[in-house]
Write a structure and sequence with these properties.
This protein is an alpha+beta fold and about 270 residues long. The protein has 2 domains: about 180 residues, Trna Endonuclease, Chain: A, domain 1 (3-Layer(aba) Sandwich), CATH 3.40.1350.10; about 60 residues, no CATH class. It is about 15% helix and about 25% strand. β10 and β11 form a beta hairpin. It is elongated.
């Protein structure tokens, strides 16, 4: 579920320009971690999520939320901003037409008034009293706020809230030979297992062309894939590091974690 085509394209262009302006390999570990969070936030916004960063980083990098239609057959993103509609002719001023709303209308000659003028600017008007109200420039009717209705006809919405932990990785290189290992690596610890059903991991993997890849999985997914290895001493001691293939296409992509590639639908 995305916001709209124009928004997606604008976000994609901004992310691409940002990536092209950076040499990811030169970033320190701290800056690369922030970089990964930045890229993930852009990607989440494409799916209609609003993204917030906690004041204190307690294993949660983002709190995200969105409003959606409550109708189970619809589930469209919900426009939470009230519509501005003329009560008389139905003209919609909600978007670019707000500037066209007059601030009042003369009760005698019907002249539209803009600004804060208390009297009708028509010098020939015998009774220049102005009724101060949001006024339609089309029919001089009153403009009012109306709660948004979904295209499906629903009048109700719900709020979805998720927490996200971002793990970022570049392709690993052998420190002695400088050769690529063609692998990514992600560190996971027991404290990361916030198993409340609303917490998710997004692994941001940046390849050698600065192209980002995303693995999206729940805590439950992680536990199931790890299986018995979670009982190992290395995981208990916060020393577990998942190494997996950097192959991003075809059979065997991202090793055993490939099934979570771009699975942003899991957040729904």
């Amino acid at each position: 579920m995305t916001v709209n085509k124009e928004t997606d394209e604008a976000i994609e262009k901004e992310v691409q320009e940002f990536l092209e302006s950076k040499n990811v390999a030169d970033l320190s570990e701290k800056h690369f971690s922030r970089f990964g969070e930045f890229i993930v936030s852009f990607e989440l916004s494409k799916y209609g999520w609003n993204i917030y960063s906690p004041v204190y980083d307690e294993y949660i990098d983002f709190v995200i939320h969105k409003y959606i239609c409550r109708d189970q057959e619809c589930r469209r993103l919900w426009n939470h901003t009230p519509a501005l509609i003329c009560k008389n002719c139905g003209k919609d001023f909600s978007r670019t037409l707000k500037k066209d709303i007059a601030t009042g209308v003369c009760l005698t000659c019907g002249l539209l008034v803009k600004g804060s003028k208390p009297k009708c600017p028509n010098e020939n008007c015998p009774n220049p009293d102005v009724e101060r109200r949001p006024t339609c420039n089309n029919c001089k009717g009153e403009v009012e706020m109306r709660k948004h209705l979904c295209d499906c006809g629903s009048t109700d919405y719900e709020t979805k809230i998720r927490t996200i932990q971002v793990k970022s990785s570049r392709i690993e290189f052998d420190k002695n030979t400088g050769r690529s290992k063609n692998t990514y690596a992600v560190d996971m610890k027991p404290k990361d297992l916030i198993d409340d059903g609303y917490h998710f991991y997004i692994w941001c993997l940046i390849d050698n062309e600065n192209k980002p890849h995303f693995l999206v999985l729940s805590v439950k997914d992680f536990i199931e894939i790890m299986g018995e290895s979670m009982k190992g001493i290395s995981f208990f001691k916060d020393q577990d590091r998942q190494h997996f293939s950097a192959k991003s296409e075809g059979e065997g992509k991202f090793g055993k974690w490939g099934k979570f590639h771009n699975r942003f639908d899991k957040l729904e």
